[in-house]
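ping. complex inputs:
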Amino acid sequence: METRLEAFREKIGERRPLCIRGGGSKDFHGGPQQGEVLDTTGYAGIIDYTPSELVLTARCGTPLAEINSALAARRQMLAFEPPAFSEAATIGGVVAAGLAGPRRGTAGGVRDHLLGVRLMDGEGRVLNFGGQVMKNVAGFDVSRLMAGSLGTLGLMLEVSLKVLPMPRCEATLRFELPQARAIEAVNHWAGEPLPISASCWRDGVLHLRLSGAEAAVAAACAKLGGEKTGADEAANFWADLGAQRMAFFAGDAPLWRVSVPSATPVLDLPGPTLIEWGGALRWLRCEADRALIESRSGAAAAVALFRGGDRQVGVFPRPAPAVQTIFRRLKTVFDPHGLFNRGRLFPDF
Amino acid sequence: MTTSASVIDPAEDFPMADRTALLAALARLVPPTALLTTEDELRPYECDALMAYRRLPLAVVLAEDEAQVVAVLRLCHRLGVPVVARGAGTGLSAGALPHAHGIVLSLARMQRMLHLDPLSRLAVIEPGMRNLAISEAAAAHGLYYAPDPSSQIACSIGGNVAENSGGVHCLKYGLTVHNVLALRVVLMDGEIIELGGMAPDAPGSELLALMIGSEGLLGVVTRVTVRLLPKPRTARVILAGFADIARAGEAVAAVIAAGLIPAGLELMDQAATRAVEPFVGAGYDLEAAAILLAEADGTAEEVEEEIAAMRAILERHGATSLRVSTSEAERLKFWAGRKAAFPAAGRISPDYYCMDGTIPRRHLGRMLNAIAAMEKKYGLGCLNVFHAGDGNLHPLILYDANVPGELERTEAFGAEILRRSIELGGTITGEHGVGFEKLGSMCEQFSSDELQIFHAIKRAFDPAGLLNPGKAVPTLHRCAELGRMHVHRGQLPHPELERF
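pong. complex structure:
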């Protein structure tokens, strides 16, 4: 591992643009890659995992599948259910992309579970931020800044993540509901102490996953009604949703990821819609341009082009100018020579 | 706690402004009732809840709205006057200690709830609103704000954001950072930025975590959007005694390993139970070397299931006594002892000093043995209360400031506990913040490269360095003066031999 680390440092020392890349499972996401590939897949392995501490530390190139199976062996999980778009996905890529799966609405996102990072900055220095403990307020929270930064701020060498027990019991309910009523229902239920862990509406059907103590899941099923989905079918359904293997995600039409306040009414836009996270995430297959989608999604929405379409003009919503200034200054702090993942987050960043 | 206080680093100093001109200019920006200038008026602002450090500011502004915050910051930016933002002043690390050449900007009067949306389960509030008042306002809708620091009756949401406050329920419900959706922040030059929003991935969300816990160094928060949760229907707590504190630690690990996430999980050692019991009559087992409080919340069915599961594990792991609360009154009584730990320390000793290290839970036994040895070494007693679920330890060192030398021994004792926390793979502060108090220990936790990154982040938000200068991040100069060495990842400090 030391020689690999030295190789990273040498590469960075050449001061040429680099494209930090793990398994490449999310190459389609973010702005187009630029620069020479810096492959992290060899820098792999779980470094520390003590189940009773609820923390796992791994090198960036560790396959997500390896981490998931190590956790599953102890009946634990990454509660943010990171999507794996192929077997090649690495934990470094998971954190850099900052994408969370169906449980995001209730369990939080990548940032919420990130406890620490070991980073190589644009000067080749190795830096540690955060740590392996749940509560830590020493120094600015640099580690959480890395979630979703798409590798623009540095090479994440190791990450420490909070893990959680798998739910003891799970059930999935199915309700036939038009979109507007489904949005209303999931928001209403989320305000009650029910063990809801995921929701998905598509084509007139709302799927609701309940996770928790056996008694709590049973009581919620009795209260909510609906039609119970078989356990295997349900497991496949949520896995297919996370990995985007459903028919909705197939084909070439641009896939937009619109995050909104959860109770936002039905968006008046053409094309099919799929809704997750209790109403807060609206997937759209839509040929309309960004301006139209933004204007119809409301001022509080965040519109990102997830897959397909024209990636050259930027895929993520631009922050306000004053926030961009801070972003730029932070970029200079970590990557003074502008080497890492140019254009991945914003075209000129 | 005076040794580090006496060190004033040139980089944290600012030339004295013309006080008369400053006060006149402030008087043009805010009404007379919002400006405090006499010594009598300033005295209550000389310290926060860590009263060992005190300084008088040039003035205190009690801002009434965001426009005043903007105007005051612009003025101070132009004049080069340091600004220390302050909420309720309940902080425990002297983070709100005034700068002798600066002003205190109090947000305590900005305490309105601007918006409450029960369907989307969020609230938009001003920074001075008290933590508990948020839950009280949301209660009518069956909702509450989850983070519950022990000072929640008094502490403000703005202060919670500055410190990333936790509470006894944060293992299950998270810290401030997990429950804040958006912030509106005024930068030192008066510019307003919005970070995050009501949508989960709103622009600027990336910077939210950086702002939360930044101890007033990056900006002044004027609006906070928080997530509200449905209030659990019911809660019950187990009170278990153990003959050996290490066994209690093992029982905690077993509960977690069994897949349970209790709503609260707290340990107290015998010194702590014996201090609080005469004070509150919580019914603790005083023969036990340690007591454990384990709470389950949720629906009645859920609580019964979890209590039964935890009970079985604790009994299997050597609990010598075990009671389960049978009423809300009894539950509160069991908790009363834990919540009275700090006042009880103040009752049995003229002074006490609360530490806040976090360690990986598995090292609890080692840490407590180390603290016991330090009690002998320094000739001072110590009570231990422990957020066992998340590894956050609060040793309360008992001392008498009027006995010459005790304060210095206490400070050395505390610094050694924090050094041990770093060596065990933990951190010097779990929830109280670095403030002014723990600057020296920061030199041990972070390398000079890492500290330089922190300073550069500070400059990205506040290039003039006027917001709460001299807090949270020590200058390299200070670290050199103190001779404190960076303890790298629990190893002995050999900076030339980094472990890869």
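The mean pLDDT of chain A is 96.
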